[in-house]
Amino acid sequence: MKFLTMKKIILFLMFSCFLTAQKIQYIELKNNIKDKNHIAKSFTLLDKRKDKTIGIVSHRKDPYEVKFEKDDLEKLFTEWFAENNEETGKTDYYLILEELAVKDIPAERSQMGHLQMKMVTFLKRNDKYYFLKKFNISKDYMQRDHAYITRAIAARISAELSNIINDSYDVKALNYPIAENELEDYEKNIKEKMPIYKADSLTNGVYMDFRSFVDQKKDLELIVRKNNEGKIKGVKRIDGYDNFKDYFAVIDNGIAYKKTPTCLIEIEKDEEGYFITAAAEELFPEQTNYYVAGAGGGLITALAVSVIDLAISRIRKQNAKYYRVGIDMLTGEYILPANFDKNK
């Protein structure tokens, strides 16, 4: 009887050890983040995640907890910067980690891993913070596509952290400083300072990039090109030469139009911000089967064609599915809705 009781105790202890021996996939911060121009004095991590745990994702049937090599992430981050930057400058940089989570998602025959990541960088000057870069990712990892799915996700996290740091060294800061206490809601506080949001009316003209658009600083050497019926057909120099096909937006009669690879689409505004109503094939024509003469015999590209054939336009209007696509006024990038499929 005592032997059976002891056996049960041993089995219980073994089972308990099995439960607590969670496999771990570490995120290694080994990539190069050297500031070649020696401008950065520091690159400090501000961990603003509500949940400091990253999560569990499975390789085949084995669950792995994904975590950094040390629990003190801010210290680990500082050490990473110091290892790569023996010679430093005078500018303090900051990376705000807003979200970092992994999990398993049921798939048809097994399951897949999911990575959710959101971060932003600033530089600090005269006790004010200036926006540099923002990065969001929401990605699924199919088991069949990766020999070791947990390693692939950990490597992606490490790579994206180093990518945004290296990019931040070179990017020009957005010239709308905010105070430290405004970092919690930085997007709202920055937008409130932008002329595009403050102005009662928009300035007619051509805008070569999103920053000139939000600053409302039109290009002084370019004008909107129209046909005899007054319809916008593109952009040209004020002297009439050199039609331009690569620009961000135009404003005509107070109405803004976003340049896409296939056409101009009116930019609208609601309580959430600026957006366009567009079909996937209008924004990502390289994913469609449409061909246009004069585009080098290939698919339409952003720089190749500014206005597509009218017959194709009518086909698209009849068959396309339209979405509200936001425009990120800090980066100029599209904010695609969750159900948006650019492969359709």
Characterization of this structure:
The protein is α+β, with helices and mostly antiparallel strands. It is built from eight helices and 17 strands. It has a four-stranded mixed sheet, with helices on one face. A hairpin with a 5-residue loop joins β9 (222-226) and β10 (232-237). It is globular, with a radius of gyration of 26 Å. Mean pLDDT is 84; it is low at 10-20 and 288-315.
Strand content: 25-35%
The largest sheet has its strands arranged as 2-5-6-7
Ranges with pLDDT <50 over ≥5 residues? 10-20, 288-315
Task: Report the average pLDDT across residues.
Answer: 84
Distance between the termini: 69 Å
What overall form do the CA principal axes indicate?
Answer: globular
What's this, in brief?
By secondary structure, the chain is α+β, with helices and mostly antiparallel strands.
What keyword list fits this structure?
344 residues; alpha+beta; four-stranded mixed beta sheet; four-stranded antiparallel beta sheet; 8 helices; globular
Task: Give the topology.
Elements: H1 2-20, E1 23-27, E2 40-47, E3 55-59, E4 62-68, H2 73-84, E5 91-106, E6 111-125, E7 128-141, H3 149-170, H4 186-191, H5 195-198, E8 205-207, H6 210-215, E9 222-226, E10 232-237, E11 249-252, E12 255-259, E13 264-266, E14 268-270, E15 273-279, H7 280-283, H8 310-319, E16 322-327, E17 334-335
Parallel strand pairs: 1-4, 2-5
Antiparallel strand pairs: 3-4, 5-6, 6-7, 8-11, 9-10, 11-12, 12-13, 14-15, 15-16, 16-17
